[in-house]
Amino acid sequence: MGETATMVRRRHPLAALLLVVALVTAACGGGNGDGDNGDASGGAESTETSQPGDPIGSGADDPFVAQVASYELVAGNDQRFLAALAGNGTGKVVSFGKVDLEFFYLGTREKPVDPPQPKTKAEAAFFPVAGQTVDPAAPGPREANPSEGLGVYAAEAVRFDVPGFWGVRVKATIGGKAISANAPFEVVAESQLPFPGAPAPRTEHPIVGAAGVDPIELDSRAKDGQPVPDTNLHSTTVAAALAAGKPTVVVVSTPVYCVSRFCGPITDTAARLADRFGDKVAFVHLEVWKDFEKKLVNPAAKEWISPRNGVGDTQEPWIFLVGSDGIVKQRIDNVVGDAAFEAAVVALAAS
User: Fold this and answer.
1) Are 81 and 124 in contact (CB under 8 A)?
2) Using one digit for the tens of pLDDT, what is the confidence trace for 72-92?
3) Cα 321 to Cα 39: distance, rounded to the nearest angstrom
4) β-pairing, 112-128 with 93-95?
5) Which segments of 188-325 are extended strands (E)?
6) E strands along the chain, which residues?
7) Is residue 274 helix, strand or coil?
8) How far apart are the C-alpha atoms of 115 and 221, rounded to whole Å?
9) For 223, which DSSP code?
């Protein structure tokens, strides 16, 4: 690929859209602020917001809104599905407990399906973002202030049988009332990023101490003359680690410029895990930006998170777990809590 960097469009699913909107709404005085210690329902009037025949898409006046937070969903594969739920304009997020998911096939642009075709169902459990001290087993679901616990609802091993446009209906009981909210999403025919079961890119990239490299290209935190932090994440290349037959964790993130604000906590967690498991597993952080002001992506990051067909957005953060055989074993998009990240590393080290 040489040194040609990629121009990138910036669009982020709910990790930025819904959760950040909730934070902004709270900061601007909408709904109850973080200091409100009222009832668990947040005082919102929760009602059933959709019926089986309703269109798949949240209405502007619904008391709750849903958004799919998964980055890339691929037809014909079991994979993690992420969705988030929040009060509509209240500054509250929905946290803890479990919700039910109903999936509908909507067809394609050329051949839409009307009415939506019911497909499958799943149960999703609350999944906190990294860097928080929260009890994921706390009672819920309930409306909460963002400071009480941010996260998504994750369902494991969800399979979509055909590519195209889909919808999800998120259903829960909040404050004693049954609610639902809908969100559309797309399922692609083929993964455009490294996928479990496929060979990992043997990426060559600068490491700490490389001559002629601006430290900020290694880590966006190395600004204004600051040294590259977490050198345990920047001491080897992906190519060298895989050539040595070492299981490798590749974290692609931009701690300073992350749209969702999840990159920093995930990178911090990776550094802590590298201190603990570095003798068994190699840890590599790839900074997304070669030049943030010019919106140029690092060539190394491009190999992992830019769609190969050039269609779609470059999104972060991503974590890829690669076995000693050089095959991608697992990938984690957008949201991962500290405990889940550690469990994935432990499983990789034991494989």
Assistant:
1) yes
2) 999 999 999 999 999 998 999
3) 41
4) unpaired
5) 248-253, 282-287, 289-291, 296-297, 318-322
6) 6-7, 64-68, 79-87, 93-95, 98-107, 112-128, 142-144, 151-158, 164-174, 177-187, 248-253, 282-287, 289-291, 296-297, 318-322, 328-333
7) helix
8) 49
9) -
In one-letter notation, the amino acid at residue 350 is: A
Q: What is the mean pLDDT of residues 155-165?
A: 97
Residue 115 DSSP symbol: E
Rounded to 5°, the CA angle 277-279-283 comes to 60
- State the residue for tokens 């939506």: 116
For the segment 31-57, what is each residue's pLDDT rounded down to a tens digit?
222 333 223 222 223 334 444 445 455
Q: DSSP code of 199?
A: B
Angle between helix 263-277 and helix 338-350 axes, rounded to 10 deg:
40
Can you read off the two tokens belonging to residue 108? 């394609």
Specify the pLDDT at position 60. 56
Domains of the chain: 14-187 (no CATH), 193-350 (3.40.30.10)
Over the stretch 190-223, which tens digit does the pLDDT of each residue have? 999 999 999 999 999 999 988 888 999 999 999 8
Q: What does pTM read for this prediction?
A: 0.83
Q: In which residue are the tokens 């680690």 written?
A: 241
